[in-house]
Amino acid sequence: MKFLSNEPRLPVPSPLMMWEEGSFANVTLIDRWPTIIRRVIEENDFSPLIIENLDNIVREFPNGIVRSLKGDHGADLEAWAGYIEPWLGQRWIDVPWLFAEVYLYRRILEATGYFTPGNFQGIDPFASQKSSSLVKVIPSIQAMSTQVNRFVNSQENRVSAIALLYFALWGNRIDLSMWPEDAEEGDRSRIESDSQQANILVDDTAKIADKIAGFRGVRIDFIIDNAGFELFCDLCLADFLIDSGVAERVYFHLKPHPFFVSDAMIKDVDLTLSVLMNNSNSDVSSLGNRLTEHINQNRLICRDDFFWTSPLPFWEMPEDLRGELGQSELIFVKGDANYRRLLGDCQWSFTTPFEDIVCYFPAPMVSLRTLKAEIIAGLQENQVEDLNRRDPQWLINGEWGVIQFSD
Ligand SMILES: O=P(O)(O)OC[C@H]1O[C@](O)(CO)[C@@H](O)[C@@H]1O
Known about the structure:
Layout: H1 24-43, H2 48-60, H3 77-84, H4 97-112, H5 127-136, H6 138-153, H7 157-170, H8 193-198, E1 200-203, H9 205-213, E2 218-223, H10 229-243, E3 247-254, H11 266-277, H12 282-296, E4 300-304, H13 319-325, E5 330-334, H14 336-342, H15 354-358, E6 365-370, H16 381-390, E7 401-406
Parallel strand pairs: 1-7, 2-3, 2-5, 3-4, 5-6
Antiparallel strand pairs: 6-7
Helix pairs in contact: 1-2, 2-4, 6-10, 6-12, 7-9, 7-10, 10-12, 11-12
The chain binds 6-O-phosphono-beta-D-fructofuranose.
6-O-phosphono-beta-D-fructofuranose (F6P) is lined by residues 28, 101, 172, 175, 177-178, 225-226, 260, 335-337, 340, 372-373.
InterPro entries: ARMT-1-like_metal-bd_sf, ARMT1, ARMT1-like_metal-bd
Family: Belongs to the damage-control phosphatase family. Sugar phosphate phosphatase III subfamily.
Domain Damage-control phosphatase ARMT1-like metal-binding: 30-386
């Protein structure tokens, strides 16, 4: 029997909070957010007033109070009045982590005048980090473009699809809110084939490849996460789906404004394509040209929507967006923050069946996510015990991934 509902099938547990000392959410509030804001100040040429606005946000952590947004001309102000209402007047440390984090990124834009007519309107405070991270991964992009062009000319569609799914997963290891592009972390775009499979905790790739094998000229969607190497990997998968005839159209759902440092907007797709097209390596430029052709022919379509930058769980998706996504045969949900929203950022037991939570999703979906928050579903009990023994940081270090399919 098909279960039809707009909500998870199980009672929803309470959300992840930030007050628990030692939790990743607490470290995020106390250490990571101030670092992110200081970096925005260093990397931009903002006015003294804007710098003061940004400094003031840092001073609010952790005991400052959640307040309404100022009338900064954002098209999302009315929606935000509703999101903030339940938490108004409460301390940052006492409100749910997901709400606080999304509110923080909106407050940064209020502080920098992103929506306000004036000198800094439309300036992406994270632009320089995004573009230097893209430059840094050019060698990986060159190596991968050669491979992708081979996939496109090969008859082995199943093998190609599986390889590209792994790339699209591990591309999510790079995330500038966690690992700034100049961090001494080694090259996170390096994808080693042995760790590709060994570190995947749930791997539904075979089921997805079977599903894709049955498609001809369908619609496929991506709820996109980071710009840079991850977006490049997503573009490679989209290119393959279109070229192989699997998809007639691929839709990319992007953020309407800067978010979580490295999240991709439509302008980041445009920038990536122009970097690819202008690269001196012919494998890279031909891939860039092909992707641009897909855009020109309306086969690769980029959309944005304020729902993607809201603090709501995905089961509160507005009806029009739900109807739109419902036309898709398969939706790739990319990255950690989107995974948190899929699960409502709640404290599910790690062994809760994934399907029992995400059954509300409007179309078959695949989550491709490396773990960067203390939330997950769909594991086996012995897996959790084993991971706790082997790698105490397994939930947050980005070294482990899931490819979880819900039909
Ligand atoms: O780019 P991603 O994969 O969505 O990750 C965003 C990161 O920011 C966080 O929200 C923490 O600040 C994590 O959940 C996640 O690691």
